[in-house]
Amino acid sequence: MTAPEALDGVRVRVDARLDHVLDEEHRRWSTVDTLLDEPLDRLRSFTVRGGKRLRPAFCHLGNAAAGGADGDLQVLDAGAALELLHVFALIHDDVMDGSVLRRGEPTIHQHFGEVHGASDWAGESRRFGEGVAVLVGDLALVLADGLLTGAPRSAWDVYNELRVELVMGQILDVSFAANQAADPATSRKISLFKSAKYTVERPLHLGAALAGRLDDLSSAFTGYGLPVGEAFQLRDDVLGAFGDEAVVGKPVGDDFREGKPTRLVLHALDVAERQQLRPALEVLAHLGNPDLTPAQVVEIQEVLEATGARTAVEQRIEDLLGEAVDALAAADLDAGARNDLIDLAVYCTRRDR
User: Fold this and answer.
1) Taking the domains of the chain in order of start, what are their residue ranges?
2) DSSP 19-54
3) Angle at CA 226, nearest 5°, toward 87 and 263?
């Protein structure tokens, strides 16, 4: 579906700010050594190529809804910081998952592994690629922190909590996938920290903090942000299982190959086990096989449909959207920003990429 106007407006301004920051860093370090050129180029291209800019948009709308001044440069820098933080998380996530595609192109570690192999350099190509990717991600994090220099203490408190929650969610995600425990409660915690808080709630809180209204709007933004964030993650799960690869920009079925215990998978397993659907259980037993064939991916998709998993998750997404809209009703917010928040919630829950 088409992105709302408010999201497009934020994207233009944030992209311009990111261009400036990354160009300055490239100009600064290109004179030091040519070996630094390509990592900086890849960071810049990865950052400005694609990405929805949702976190900057929620920060901006949180500030606008709280009555913040339009065009506040501190809010713009906070939005750019959130986007660079997201770049850091994606690059590291791709290393941990062993992903080969992101935003329609080779992941950072995949690219530098190929560079190493083609250059006949010493050492192992995979380790080199992953090492450079980790460092490029670290650079994105450092640049993100630098953009918040001068922000008030309340804003830094939100930002620090966001970063800790993101790391804790990632630890849970990696551990949960490895021990293959079909625990819906842990799955919800992962969704809470890696999506709901990180993508929506904390960016809203950051915007409100920059407007000096965190205390009185924190509850309303949590009531809106957590259901939108959960629905956003559930939509990601659906797209990862059933999306159009050309639109999504990464291989559909990768979650199956990684054995991710998504809500879709947990629902299907529960139904198959309770109803003793042996053929379905045999198909689902292939989850976590990195060499899944396209035909096996289709079989898993069919089980998710047949057990009602996809229908149940789609209904949950719609219910969460309703909760989010209701949470804004009684809050003291700028009317235009409230409407923009509703539009953005609809986009997050019904997008196709």
Assistant:
1) 5-350
2) HHHHHHHHHHHTTT-GGGHHHHHHHHHHHHSS---H
3) 80
185-211 pLDDT, tens digit per residue, is: 888 899 899 889 999 999 999 999 999
In this prediction, residue 193 carries a pLDDT of 93
Three-class SS state of 294:
helix
Bridge partners (DSSP) listed for residue 89: none
Two tokens, residue 291: 């060499």
Q: CA of 272: how far to CAs of 167, 184, 281, 285, 343, in Å?
A: 33, 15, 6, 11, 37
Identify the burial level of 189 via C-beta atoms within 10 angstroms of its C-beta, where 0-12 means exposed, 13-18 middle and 19 or more buried.
middle
CA pair distance 208, 219, nearest whole angstrom: 11
In angstroms, the CA 118 to CA 111 distance is 11
Write the CB contacts of 50 (distance below 8 Å, at least 6 apart in sequence): 103, 104, 249
Query: Sign of dihedral through CA atoms 216, 221, 223, 226?
Result: negative
For 91-123, write each residue's pLDDT tens digit. 999 999 898 988 878 999 999 999 999 998 999
pLDDT in tens, 33-55: 999 999 999 999 999 887 899 99
Q: Using a cut of 0.70, tell me whether the model's pTM lies above it.
A: yes
Question: What is the pLDDT of the chain when averaged over all its residues?
Answer: 94
What dotted CATH number matches 5-350?
1.10.600.10
What contacts 24+ positions apart, CB below 8 Å, involve 330-334? 330/220, 331/65, 331/217, 331/220, 332/216, 332/217, 333/65, 333/66, 333/217, 333/220, 334/64, 334/65, 334/66, 334/67
What radius of gyration do the chain's Cα atoms show? 21
For the cut 80, the answer to whether the pLDDT of residue 158 exceeds it is: yes
In whole angstroms, give the CA distance from residue 216 to residue 213: 6
Helical residues (DSSP H) of the chain, grouped into ranges: 5-29, 37-48, 54-65, 73-97, 108-119, 125-147, 153-179, 184-191, 202-210, 214-242, 245-248, 254-258, 263-274, 278-284, 294-306, 309-328, 335-350
